[in-house]
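Table S2 (text version). Query chain:
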Amino acid sequence: MLKKHALDPIKLIWLFAGSLIINTGVSFIWPLTTIYIHNYLHETLTIAGIVLFINSAFTMVGNALGGFLFDKWHPYQTLLTGVSISTLSTFLLVLFHGWPAYPILLITLGLGNGIVVTGLNSIATLIRSRNASYVFNVLYFTQNLGLVFGSLIVGFILPFGITYIFLLAFIMFAFLSIVVFLEYRGLNQAHAAKGKKVAESEYQEKIPYGAKKAIFSILICVLAAWIAYEQWNSNISSYMLGLHMSVRLYSLLWTLNAVLIVLIQPLLTYFDDWLTQHLHGRLYIGFSLFGLAFLLLIGANHYFSFVLAMAVLTCGEILAFPAVSTFVNDRASNKDKGKYQGIVQSVTSAGRALGPLIGALVIDNFSYLVLFIFCTILVLISVLLFAMINAYNKKKIAK
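Corresponding structure-token output:
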């Protein structure tokens, strides 16, 4: 039986609104990064790749810092710090978006966003009116809805000038600052109450070794999946262009991805209780679909093959990614829940940073065929490792 809404540190609507706002704001900027650096600032694609790598690295730092500060300092001040860094960065981007101001501010924006995203996920661990799995599912939905909104708006605004894009991003982050300042004040009190409860509890404190191994194995799955996923953001576009398919056809694949997420995710949220009871199966199927999607690209020379592969990949994504936060939250100790949500986000950022680089190395030294096989094997081996560790833990408990 779920507890009363009054026990929630903030209203759920404001948590989900915060996720929607930040992801809409971010999506005004990140899709344009490579194009802006190469076409507007006239730097090489290699330089653009390096900037994206450093941005991902600082996002990882923000993720880890956000989780640490959420647990060890004050959640409210942690969110305010992160959103203030992001707001200031976007404001300065409106005024200074030449070279090298743009990459420097992009990096500070990544740091701020890393803190905020981890903070929002960590708040889910303090919610009492709903299961954490439900909150993680809706956060994932709002994240993707924000990306859809932002990407659509960019297409209409960009012809008026890049300055208006940065201005829109600043407005979104300024609005988020107001929301956090006014609506997130109850976080510290709820966190302090949880800390007191943890201190009085006999169970506290160390995560069992088996649970640590399980968390480590699911993080390997996340890293492998994001390394594979990033091929769609980087190298697969070049592969499709080499097959004489247009940029428009490539961009339609991401429209398909967004539409499937927006349509299917609420359905999974509706069956959240059942899916939570079968969390392991959800993760096995989700990550397996993720890996198998790349098999559909082997020998692909018709657009339908790419559509089918993206559909399978997206179904795997919807099943697996929101469930990872639930799996880790269930196994983390009460005093370290924010820390472990930060680790999940850091591993995601690491996969995003490494994916394009690893893919490019495989293609340069071998071929796209080898890349697709590599991605399939990488993800499926990580799923197998995860399943083996879970089976071992169950066997040990049974004894």
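Notes on Table S2: The mean pLDDT is 85. Residues 368-398 form the longest helix (31 residues).
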